[in-house]
Write a sequence for this structure.
């Protein structure tokens, strides 16, 4: 019996590879297994190799598995591209239709099953994916009935007959593969799972759900990979809450519309990726200068320019922190799991209103699109705080004739009372031009300095529950401190375990608040480590530079950089760390 | 009772004496009072340029945004609070150069708001460069031998983009301009009012006198029907766009807000943000 296995389905984009993975993993999720998914896909609608790799485990997993146990192949390319990942006792099940060939140096066993033929015999070749799932059941010694519920939901709109036909396809796949597998039948049986019902979601789902829970009622966005799912979720859910989504003409309109909505008192946001964020930079400056709350989600993908639009990267970091002209207060959060993405998104809306400044929720493609198990989210933890928003016009003193409300009053903490259009005694002006306490343009040197200082000192008080997650830093003195952000958490955690098993003392810190940088949280850990290894998906070591700027200790910082478009595997972190030590 | 004086503040505009924008400011103040607005329920969102300063010269909520982006920001304001009256405003550079994309999309989106362009056919604040509204041959600092690009025709463009309220005014005719803004504010949908607002410093061609000589008032055109799009287009083409008055209005087309699925009849800004616990738990279950 195994505690975990890694399963992959591959074929041509557009032939249902993703939905095959989806149906397989939904059933595994309901049995209570922990899952972590990875999608390999290209920027095209049809054609080109695509695959969906899913790790299934009896314990929590947060990284793509190094190796592969079961490969479901719908074409020869899938075998040729992926066989090198196979464990020696692994099994490739392939459709007889393309006359699969097992490469000479492949140790895994090839089992040829007539997926298409069986499916056609039952009515339509479209069901070949179900035959493949049935074949998987035979390898895992899994009763195929576990798919009944998932199929009923997936095909309910197509009617009971379709559900029945698909179940027959699964059964036929199971029976045929059982015979062909011989002694390998049940070779990858998993130990029973805990049966706990968990959510199975991509990071973008968690961000979108977090936005709804935080009280968002308006979103303006422009479609882009890998952010569009966030907009699509809100388009589905906001009508029931009275809200709306506008698909704008571009990302500049998206960001400025969100600013306008926040200015008028609604929690509104936008979500995009690198190219969109580049277009939003001037708007982000406007939000900072005019002290309007603004939340923007950046789902990082391969850059620069159009770059690798469907591949993993973390190269927007510096742009998110420094990418607007002039100095503004800004907060940048970086969740590392879907669960954190949910809670951080809620925090982002609270922080944006508390500090009246732009807040960026930084994600990366693997977090945004990789599906993972999430413990049921906790309603009680959803708190909404609106900072110094004046929520009752009665609180406002009557304005003197011809006078404006002091929307930008210089205060000790830098945050001023915020009023909304429609409030009788709150009339004031808002401008991206330097302005006085009432918002009127002012070029006075003294005023400039006071207003700039006021805006910038707002960041002195930014706190986050876990600005740096140091749960895995157990050693007082360590040989190595592994540091990362966003989706690399799982790979770093597993590398840490393996390095520890090899006799090294390894701590791990994952940065959740990238700006303002939590120097005081990270510095003590760095002091107590021989070497600090910063793992990140970019070519220039942006996080490492940020740490050097804020914490110092440059001589002990080593960069572990990967920018080939694929997420770190635990084995890569382990190996590269060993090389550096 | 609210009068136009209630929409005045004590800020002295930094416009040149004689600038056409003073009339636009006065017309907005008068029209706002005439249609019964109160200062706190009016939001004026403006772009960048001399004209962009207008949001600071009216006693109302005002947002002076960034170059070319007044329209999307103003649409966000209106989406958040449908009870507010929202006016976006800016110059011809703002609306027809850097922000042209937003202009066309705002026209076709048809959110219930008013957009007033102060069109002086020149870049004034940057001291005299060509604008997309400058006529071919127009000599400026950036076109010393005369502009070689044809001018944009905003009114024709608005008609072909699905505009439901298309009008044009002139700074010298405060009465007509005030009336057009009133009609725009009362229109259920997106109203575009382009105003010939002469730059007395940098535009020595399109002067007050030049406009007086060349403009045709539609109210004086016999049998002009502002509900006939085809005739509106023909009239614009015949007079090279040099007309004032209500050019076209579609009173049948519902505004964007009326068409959005589920959109709350109350302002979104008045909603309770806390989700119902059962609803939240249902959303969570969808991922199980």
């Amino acid at each position: 019996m195994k505690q975990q296995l890694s399963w992959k389905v591959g074929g041509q984009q557009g032939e249902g590879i993703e939905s095959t993975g989806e149906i397989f993993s939904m059933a595994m999720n309901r049995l209570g297994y922990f899952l972590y998914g990875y999608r390999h896909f290209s920027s095209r609608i049809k054609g080109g190799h695509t695959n969906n790799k899913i790790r299934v485990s009896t314990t929590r997993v947060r990284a793509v598995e190094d190796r592969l146990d079961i490969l479901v192949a719908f074409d020869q390319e899938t075998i040729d591209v992926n066989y090198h990942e196979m464990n020696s006792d692994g099994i490739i099940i392939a459709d007889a239709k393309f006359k699969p060939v097992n490469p000479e140096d492949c140790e895994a066993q090839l089992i040829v099953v007539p997926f298409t033929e069986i499916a056609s015999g039952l009515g339509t070749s479209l069901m070949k994916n179900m035959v493949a799932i049935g074949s998987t059941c035979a390898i895992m010694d899994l009763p195929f009935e576990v798919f009944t519920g998932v199929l009923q939901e997936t095909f309910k709109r197509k009617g009971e007959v379709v559900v029945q036909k698909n179940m027959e396809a699964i059964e036929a796949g199971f029976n045929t593969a059982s015979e062909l597998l011989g002694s390998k039948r049940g070779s990858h049986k998993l130990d029973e799972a805990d049966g706990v019902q968990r959510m199975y979601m991509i990071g973008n789902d968690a961000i979108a759900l977090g936005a709804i829970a935080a009280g968002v009622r308006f979103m303006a966005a422009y479609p882009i990979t890998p952010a569009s799912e966030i907009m699509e979720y809100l388009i589905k859910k906001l009508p029931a809450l009275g809200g709306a989504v506008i698909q704008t003409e571009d990302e500049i309109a998206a960001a400025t519309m969100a600013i306008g909505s926040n200015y008028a008192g609604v929690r509104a946001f936008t979500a995009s990726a690198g190219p969109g964020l580049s277009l939003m930079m001037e708007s982000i400056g406007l939000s900072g200068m005019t002290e309007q709350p603004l939340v923007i989600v950046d789902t990082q993908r391969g850059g620069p320019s159009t770059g690798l639009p469907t591949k993993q990267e973390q190269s927007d970091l510096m742009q998110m922190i420094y990418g607007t002209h002039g100095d503004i207060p800004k907060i940048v959060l970086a969740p590392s799991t879907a669960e954190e993405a949910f809670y951080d998104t809620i925090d982002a809306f609270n922080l944006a209103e508390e500090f009246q400044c732009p807040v960026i929720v930084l994600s990366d493609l693997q977090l945004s699109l990789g599906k993972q198990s999430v413990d049921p989210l906790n309603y009680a933890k959803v708190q909404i705080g609106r900072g110094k928003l004046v929520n009752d016009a009665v609180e406002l003193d009557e304005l003197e004739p011809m006078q404006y409300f002091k929307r930008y009053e210089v205060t000790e903490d830098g945050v001023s009372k915020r009023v909304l259009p429609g409030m009788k005694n709150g009339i004031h002006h808002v401008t991206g031009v330097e302005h006085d306490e009432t918002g009127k343009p002012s070029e006075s040197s003294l005023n400039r300095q006071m207003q700039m200082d006021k805006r910038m000192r707002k960041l002195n008080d930014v706190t986050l529950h876990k600005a740096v997650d140091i749960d895995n830093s157990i050693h007082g003195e360590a040989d190595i401190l592994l540091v990362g952000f966003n989706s690399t958490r799982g790979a770093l955690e597993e590398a840490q375990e393996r390095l520890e098993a090899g006799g090294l003392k390894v701590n791990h810190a994952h940065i959740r608040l990238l700006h303002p940088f939590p120097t005081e949280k990270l510095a003590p850990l760095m002091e107590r480590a021989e070497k600090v290894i910063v793992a990140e998906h970019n070519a220039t070591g942006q996080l490492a530079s940020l740490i050097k700027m804020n914490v110092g200790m440059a001589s002990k910082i080593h960069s572990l950089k990967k920018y080939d478009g694929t997420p770190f595997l635990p084995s890569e972190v382990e190996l590269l760390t060993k090389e550096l030590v | 009772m609210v009068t136009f004086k209630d929409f005045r503040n004590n800020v002295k505009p930094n416009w040149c004496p004689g600038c056409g924008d003073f009339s636009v400011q006065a017309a907005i103040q008068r029209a706002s009072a005439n249609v019964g607005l109160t200062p706190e329920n009016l939001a004026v969102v403006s772009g960048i340029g001399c004209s962009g300063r207008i949001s600071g010269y009216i006693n109302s909520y005002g947002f002076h945004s960034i170059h070319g982006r007044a329209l999307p920001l103003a649409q966000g304001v209106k989406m958040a609070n449908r009870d507010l009256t929202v006016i976006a405003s800016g110059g011809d550079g703002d609306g027809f150069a850097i922000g042209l994309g937003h202009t066309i999309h705002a026209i076709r989106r048809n959110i219930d708001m008013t957009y007033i362009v102060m069109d002086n056919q020149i870049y004034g604040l940057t001291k005299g460069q060509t604008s997309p509204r400058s006529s071919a041959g127009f000599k400026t600092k950036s076109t010393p031998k005369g502009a070689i690009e044809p001018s944009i025709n905003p009114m024709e463009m608005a008609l072909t983009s699905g505009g439901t309220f298309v009008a044009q005014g002139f700074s010298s005719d405060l009465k007509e301009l005030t009336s057009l803004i009133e009609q725009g504010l009362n229109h259920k949908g997106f109203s575009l009012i382009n105003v010939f607002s002469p730059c007395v410093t940098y535009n020595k061609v399109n002067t007050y006198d030049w406009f007086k000589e060349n403009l045709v008032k539609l109210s004086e055109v016999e049998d002009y029907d502002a509900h006939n799009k085809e005739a509106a287009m023909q009239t614009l083409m015949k007079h090279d766009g040099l007309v004032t008055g209500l050019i076209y209005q579609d009173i049948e087309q519902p505004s964007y807000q009326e068409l959005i699925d589920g959109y709350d009849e109350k302002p979104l800004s008045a909603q309770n943000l806390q989700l119902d616990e059962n609803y939240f738990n249902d959303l969570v279950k969808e991922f199980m």
